[in-house]
Amino acid sequence: MENVLEAINLNKSFTDPVEFQVLKNISFSVRKGEFLSLMGKSGSGKSTLLYLLSTMDTVYDGQVVINGQLLTGMTQDALSAFRNEHIGFVFQFHFLLPEFSCLENVMLPAMKLNKWSNREIEKKAMEKLELLGVADQAHKLASRLSGGQQQRVAIARALINDPALIMGDEPTGNLDSHNSQNVQEIFRELTTRYHQTIIAVTHDPEFAKGTDRIIELSDGEIVK
Amino acid sequence: MIVSRLTLRIARTQLLAKKKQTTIAALGVTFGIAMFIFMISVMTGVNALLEDTMLMNTPHIRLYNDVTAVRPSLLEETYGNDTIWPVVRHQRPKQTKRNIKGATMIVSDLRSDPAVIGVSAQVTSQVFYNYGPVQLNGVIAGVDILEEDKLFNLRTKMKYGRLEDLPANRDGLIMGIGLARKLNVNPGDRVTVSTPGGSLQSFKVVGIFKTAVGAVDDQKSYANAESVQKILEEDSRYFTEIQVKLRDVNAANAYGKAVFNQYGYKAEDWETANATILQSFVIRNVMTVIVAGTLLVVAGFGIYNIMNMTIYNKMRDIAILKATGFAGSDVRGIFMTQAIIIGLLGGSLGLIFGYIFSYLTSKAPFDGGDVLSIDTFPVNMDYRFYIMGILFGVVTTALAAYFPSRKASKIDPVNILRG
User: Fold this and answer.
1) Cβ neighbours for B250, distance < 8 A, ≥ 6 positions apart
2) On chain B, which terminus has fewer CB atoms closer than 10 Å, C or N?
């Protein structure tokens, strides 16, 4: 199967407060439709790696190729547009816009993409919310929801543009076991039915066990 | 910068969701603009009042016979400077009349010029005012009072009586208020006027005026031209000066020169006559500009601070928008839209408050005393201040939003989201 993502010789250092190399010569590739989990102790560099791959961090050495396109060195705006269409990201902490309703939060990336009409976008957004079991909260302000509900809305937002790649920084970290299970099933279905690729950073061995492949990081190097 | 319907929508939602914050930001602008408008209105109002007060008693051009001008001695006139070298020691001014020859002709000449609004010929003389035991030195001006009114708007300066009372009484006198007080005369009283030539004449005080300039109010009286000519023992063509009011104040200097060339009499324009006062106006205007500039800078910094804070509070939202695919230009568009809305909203309110403050102040009673002839505080309600105010408000808010939002649009979202 073709590779959807390739990481080539990624190196990253923090200089503040002291010079510290977070990532050391990271190279790996991810196949299309793969459900991959990144594990490692805190400080191992797994979240940093994920942010590099997601193009939200542009300060690194090496190359990131997604869908055959070299993303390293592209302008911020070009990367934003790329993320908009091809990458859905779920943060560890939900990060919704508090002034907007849940539905609007989910709709915004699609409105930016401007590929469908507003009515279609709304329909799609409702489907995603339905999928994650928070459709009944759609018209509430995002700030009015519980942490778990907000996290699920954030996952719906990541799915709205049907991205090729979905990345999550502990996407189920704020969820109870029932909902965590549910999300994992959703992710599984996305990979098998729609051949979307999922890369998730996780601490949870249970969650990792259910994925296709586990990459384990330690001190900025891939150990497994 | 792209301002699409989507960015507009996001901008609007954020503004409406944080009503309190939006209101505070807009009020910051309001406060700055209102203060600016109020201060500049009052300052320029006071300046204009002082200028008017000082200049309103000066004609634009004053034409008179300058008797002290150097004149050639009889020897020079006869032989010229080439053939002899005349030396005349202690030459005294010739006994000449101070009148302008052909004054009536010059007056009608000037009057026919469309650049001229009013011309008033007058005969003035140093006199003594006698009332009972009191004898005071002063000036009497024989005029056509209605012509004089066109030049100096005397009607508004009458404290007692009317201008029309003067032509109606051949021996009438309209007296300066300071002079009247010192003599202790009231309208209807008769005072005796004596000239340097020694003639006496009794005048009836028919009115009292107040120009608010002490030197004038304490010294001057207006009488009919014929009466003054009579006590000076001159005929009815005897006028000592002609005063001209022009349509364009600033043309006075050039016009004065033209008049001098044509008639040969000294023509003094108001700028020359008031050179020192004008200098003080320049200094005062510089001060006004400095104060207005300081106000704008202070208001500008206030606005800048508030906008900066508003945007830094939104840093996380910016990062989220960028993470989900919004471009830096979208982010800038959102914040610039918000800033301009806040600027317009706050600025307009500022204009309204500024106007209200200025209006109330302009209605506040203010006793100018004997110095200034005003009843309320002088305020200059110039519409240009309002245009400046709103422009400044919007431009400052836009700038204040531009720099932080540009910075925000360039930063990697992860730097904000990961703290």
Assistant:
1) none
2) C
Q: Which of A11-20, A34-43, B77-86, B359-368 has the lowest mean pLDDT?
A: B77-86
Number of domains in chain A: 1
Using a CB–CB cutoff of 8 Å, tell me whether B316 touches chain A. yes
When pLDDT is averaged across residues A140-163 and rounded to a whole number, the result is 87
Helix axes A177-194, A147-159, angle to 10 degrees: 10
User: By C-alpha distance, which of A28, A13, A21, A22 is closest to A64?
Assistant: A28
> In chain A, which residue's Cα lies nearest the Cα of B315?
A97
The count of structural domains within chain B is: 2
**Shared domain check, B10 and B125:** no
Chain B positions touching A141 (Cβ under 8 A) are 17
Give the gap in angstroms from C-alpha B282 to the nearest C-alpha of chain A.
Answer: 54
- Mutant choice from B324, B331, B332, B409 vs A, greatest count of A C-beta within 10 A: B324
For helices B275-313 and B19-55, angle between their N-to-C axes, nearest 10 degrees: 180
* pLDDT reading at B69 higher than 60: no
Beta bridge partners of B141: B124, B222
Whether chain A has a CB inside 8 Å of the CB on B320: the answer is yes
Both B208 and B121 in a single domain? yes
Q: Which of B68-77, B94-103, B363-372 reaches the highest mean pLDDT?
A: B94-103
Pair of tokens at residue B320 = 């989220």
Which two three-digit tokens encode residue A89? 């990201």
The DSSP-derived string for B174-201 is EEEHHHHHHHT--TT-EEEEE-TT--EE
Closest B-chain CA to A85: B325
The CATH number assigned to the domain holding A101 equals: 3.40.50.300
Residue B326 and residue B245 share a domain: no
- Mutate which of A42, A50, A84, A99 to test chain B, going by most B C-beta atoms within 10 A? A99
Q: Identify the band that residue B1 occupies on the pLDDT scale cut at 50, 70 and 90.
A: very low
Q: Look at residue B89 and tell me if it is in a domain.
A: no
Query: Which residues does A contribute to its contact with B (CB < 8 Å)?
Result: 47, 51, 54, 56-59, 76-77, 80-81, 83-85, 89, 91, 95-100, 104, 108-109, 111-114, 141, 157, 161
Give a yes or no: residue B137 inside a domain.
yes
Q: What would the mean pLDDT of A193-197 be, rounded to a whole number?
A: 86
Domain interval for residue B362:
5-55+278-417
